[in-house]
């Protein structure tokens, strides 16, 4: 409602703004910086999406907020918009936007201190409310002197209303857990899952010795490292999938390898499985035939250079894809849902097959538990 009110006010001002009709140059001087900053901000956020999400991990996947990327996009656009607007107005000899910009910087700094340093969502909310009042008063004041100025202030006011909503949400949701501003998706500690089969059950394709090393040493180390690295960070308490989606560096490498191995070991079975009719139809529809899929999957796994993974994954439209990833990378980073995978790091097969990766991959196909692909799918 407040956003609609401000938008209506903006429209009334713009309709009544004679400057835009009588002086097209002046109108463009106000309007073009706004359009340009939105385009630059949106483009930059699109390219840097993952990095931006990482700056605000506390907002990821909280149930009542928009997608986490919206907040940093709005934030970036705000600074560009106000900065360029201030420049334009200064060139024209008008100090009002510059004053607003400085005031906004001061209040935003105060907000950051309250929210992040003092960890007080209530004080943060009060600062944002004060900013709402100040900016709205400025819009009324500036537009009474120069109607075209409303073009510059109103997008910022809309952003502020969104920020107020976010701050209010965080304040209300943190009443139960005082001094905690991280919105956790779950509180489950990341732990080594038990194998759904006996250690020697996959032999001879995967010997007991291989499982002891691969599951007992490599997989366990990735789990232990992840827990050690995330302790005391905003990632602590998040689910593994969420950490993989937004993290970087050592945390990403270990969390992603933990997740990759979880999907890998969960997706194996000592009892050879037949695909469900539904999965067969999906594979035939997307790859032509089961044989064509098997051939492409095996070829991809044999041909992948260096260490990595080959995945059966699905996109947002439910289309199945064969996806190769390097090192610790996971399809989740590419907005795809992973269903099954083969590990082609050397540690996965070297004890049993030495350098014969092709033999390993061909034998490995017999161990795939296709029911797990159905279980992980969002389209069955
Ligand atoms: Mn491995």
How does this model look, in words?
This protein has 380 residues and is mainly alpha-helical. It has two domains: 2-173, TspO/MBR protein (Ferritin, Up-down Bundle); 208-376, minor pseudopilin epsh fold (3-Layer(bab) Sandwich), CATH 3.55.40.20. It contains 16 helices and three strands. The protein is elongated. Mean pLDDT is 77; it is low at 17-22, 47-67 and 176-187. Bound molecules: manganese (II) ion. Manganese (II) ion binds at residues 214, 218, 261, 343, 345, 347-348.
Question: Which helices and strands appear, and what pairs or packs with what?
Answer:
Blueprint lengths: L1 H14 L3 H4 L1 H24 L1 H7 L14 H22 L4 H22 L3 H25 L4 H24 L34 H23 L9 H7 L2 H18 L10 H11 L2 H14 L4 E7 L5 E7 L10 E7 L6 H4 L3 H8 L5 H7 L4
Bound molecules: manganese (II) ion.
């Amino acid at each position: 409602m407040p956003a609609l009110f401000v938008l209506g006010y903006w429209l009334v001002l713009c309709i009544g703004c004679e400057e835009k009709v009588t002086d097209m140059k002046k109108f463009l001087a106000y309007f073009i910086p706004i359009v340009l900053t939105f385009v630059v901000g949106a483009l930059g956020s699109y390219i840097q999406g993952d990095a931006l999400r990482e700056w605000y991990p506390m907002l990821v996947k909280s149930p009542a907020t928009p997608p986490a990327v919206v907040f940093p996009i709005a934030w970036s656009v705000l600074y560009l918009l106000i900065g360029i607007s201030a420049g334009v107005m200064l060139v024209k000899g008008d100090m009002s936007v510059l004053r607003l910009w400085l005031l906004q910087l001061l209040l935003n700094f105060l907000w950051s201190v309250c929210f992040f340093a003092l960890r007080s969502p209530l004080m943060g909310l009060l600062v944002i409310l004060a900013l709402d009042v100040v900016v709205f008063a400025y819009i009324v004041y500036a537009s009474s002197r120069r109607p075209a100025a409303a073009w510059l202030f109103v997008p910022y006011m809309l952003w502020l209303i969104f920020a107020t909503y976010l701050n209010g949400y965080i304040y209300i949701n943190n009443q139960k857990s005082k001094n905690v501003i991280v919105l956790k998706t779950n509180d489950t500690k990341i732990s080594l899952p038990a194998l759904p089969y006996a250690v020697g059950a996959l032999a001879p394709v995967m010997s007991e010795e291989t499982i002891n090393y691969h599951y007992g040493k490599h997989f366990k180390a990735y789990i232990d490292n992840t827990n050690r690295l995330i302790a005391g960070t905003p990632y602590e308490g998040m689910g593994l999938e969420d950490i993989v989606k937004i993290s970087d560096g050592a945390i990403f490498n270990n969390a992603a390898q933990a997740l990759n191995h979880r999907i890998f070991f969960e997706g194996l079975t000592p009892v050879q499985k037949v695909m469900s009719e539904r999965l067969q139809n999906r594979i035939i529809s997307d790859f032509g035939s089961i044989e064509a899929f098997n051939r492409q999957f095996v070829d991809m796994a044999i041909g992948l250079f260096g260490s990595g993974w080959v995945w059966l994954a699905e996109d947002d439209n439910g289309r199945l894809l064969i996806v190769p990833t390097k090192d610790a990378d996971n399809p989740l980073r590419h907005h795809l849902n992973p269903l099954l995978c083969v590990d082609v790091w050397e540690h996965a097969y070297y004890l049993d097959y030495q350098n014969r990766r092709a033999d390993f991959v061909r034998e490995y196909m017999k161990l795939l538990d296709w029911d797990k692909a159905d279980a992980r799918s969002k389209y069955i």
